[in-house]
Amino acid sequence: MKSNLIDSTTSIAKLIDTIVNLPSNPPSLYLDLEGINLSRQGSISILQLMLYPQKDVYLIDIHVLGSVAFTTPGSGGKTFQGILESPIVPKVFFDVRNDSNALFFHYGIALQGVQDIQLMECASRPGMGLSRKFVHSLLKCIQTDAPITWQQKQTWTAAKDAGAMLFAPEKGGSYAVFNARPLKEEIRAYCVQDVQFLPILRQTYCNRLQSDWRTKVDTETIARVQSSQRLDYQPHGSDKAFSPWRDFQAPSLSQSHSFWADGAFTHDDEYYGGDNDFDDDFDNSFDNDFEDFTNRYSP
User: Is the model's pLDDT at 51 over the cut of 60?
Assistant: First the structure.
């Protein structure tokens, strides 16, 4: 999947004009951030934005643009900051906590209208007696739940691993590679894979989430954003591996049913493949946003 680099105020303004009138049901905006020690203690390098159903991926160069990436208006006067802070424009993340922490403390952006796929997965786990004690990583969700082909999963994982070789210190890399310009193709591909399958993961979990858990997910998503804006938030604490529902057991599969039907997607052959088999149960890679604690804490 190709990506478009946004590194000028002109391109930001054009992007704003592209997204201001996109539908909100289902959500059109899927986001992730990369950076050096991504949090208030570090910096933001790139903000990835995928537009659905167009499947266009934009890499907004925060390292180059800084605050003007968020304050430059489109032709109608709206800014990216205004979109991020709008409670009526849904923005979909996978584990919003460190992204929110970095945006709030570096650029004063207080996210609203957030949907968190990591929480949706945890709340929707089928099967009698399954534990909700720990949250899952993006890799584990892709491996286990994404309705894509085995080959697509292999390609996705290869892009993830190639990027990690360049930025993970444990693999001989450096996070500074996210600030090197021009961006290496491996880094661009890594950024794309972090948002590429978020739309179908969201729909997968919406389809199996019990309706009475919708409020729980919404409440805990707001709580995640609010906690990330406090000075005592620990961006890399081991307690992030635990879900807010660690004392709940998952329902039986027969109890699960579709909700948020008005946010359903149409069938898409590019995304919905046949073989959903994958043989690696744990995330052993190195994620720059530190979303994956399950390789150490998964039961």
Answer: yes
